Amino acid sequence: LFTALADQAALAIERIQLVSDVEKAKLTAETDRLRTALLTSISHDLKTPLAAIMGSAGTLKDFADDIPVDARNDLLSTIIEESERLNRFISNLLDMTRIGSGAMEPNYGLHFVGDIVGTALARAAKITGGHRMDLAIPSDLPMLKVDPVLFEQVLFNLIDNAAKYSPATTPIGIRVWLQSGSVFLSVSDEGPGIPPDDLERIFDSFYRVRKTDHVHAGTGLGLSICRGFVEAMGGSIRAGNRTDHQGAVFTIRMPVPPVPPVLGDQE
Ligand code: ADP
Questions:
Q1: What count of other Cβ atoms lies within 10 Å of the Cβ of residue 71?
Q2: Is the ipTM of this complex over 0.85?
Q3: What is d(CA 14, CA 186) in angstroms, rounded to the nearest whole number?
Q4: Tens of pLDDT along the chain (267 residues)?
């Protein structure tokens, strides 16, 4: 009996091994496919701005004496803007690597959301230019346990998207409210909104709804960074469409930290 059981066990182990080998091969193929897609996408995102920079710099060098001042300024502006785009892309990639490697340890502190919104808005001022910012942030909200740098980056990405994907003079709304032990923050706009099938996928790295959208410079990384950072700080983020108006709305939910006991209370 013992030998029969041992044989059976050996057979079962062999079968499990076989299944896991097949699974492993499948996983490897999937990882390889993703890696290739990732590299293709990154190469494209690096090459496009580089080509513009090289073209403009080349023209400036070759025709230095014959270019009118206006045209020269245009070429210089292209070089600066495309370098900024490259810089943003590389920063995004570094943020992604930090999330992916699990090397990201948030630097927590207690902060008022309103203060962080203020910092993010100041940083985004150049981008939000023609948009009116509609803020509804109560002053009596509890403090949140967040990493202010990460939280500001999340807000900046959402405000950047709202400004980028909605017509230049339309308002952008930022609302904060307290509900069922959590602080909610929403960023809404009057742009085209997001197709229902894409509401989850837009948080994937490199996913863009309008893939051929070359008007709005983008990497498809902003929202996956938002989700990575928010979840690393114990919160959640989702995308939706407004019900009162055409446009997108992104909502962050952060737990309110428990109130620490006041020292000396026991006496
Ligand atoms: P990027 O903006 O660089 O493409 P994101 O990860 O920030 O990358 O966003 C992914 C995609 O989600 C965008 O390409 C766009 O299609 C869509 N999206 C994001 N924010 C909005 C918004 N406010 N309105 C409409 N579409 C949006």
A1: 13
A2: yes
A3: 53
A4: 556 666 777 777 777 777 777 777 776 776 676 667 667 767 777 888 899 999 999 999 999 888 999 999 999 999 998 898 888 778 777 777 776 666 667 789 999 999 999 999 998 888 888 899 999 999 999 999 998 888 998 999 999 999 999 999 999 999 999 999 999 999 999 999 999 999 999 999 888 887 665 556 677 888 988 998 899 889 999 999 999 999 999 999 999 998 766 666 554
Q: How far is the CA of 225 from the centre of ligand 1 (A)?
A: 12
Here the tokens at position 255 are 């737990």
* CB of residue 219 inside a 6 A radius of ligand 1: yes
Running DSSP on this structure, what letter comes out for residue 191? S
Of 198, 191, 185, give the one whose Cα is nearest residue 250: 185
- Give the burial class of 116: count Cβ atoms within 10 A of its Cβ; 0-12 exposed, 13-18 middle, 19 or more buried: buried
Whether ligand 1 lies within 6 angstroms of the CB of 163 is answered as no
Q: From the CA of 191, how far away is ligand 1's center (Å)?
A: 11
Atom of ligand 1 minimally distant from the CA of 217: 3
User: Cβ(176)–Cβ(136) under 8 Å?
Assistant: yes
| CA 1 to ligand 1 centroid distance, Å | 64
Contact partners, residue 4, CB within 8 Å, separation at least 6: none
220 lines ligand 1 (CB under 6 A): yes
Contact between 164 and 216 (Cβ < 8 Å):
yes
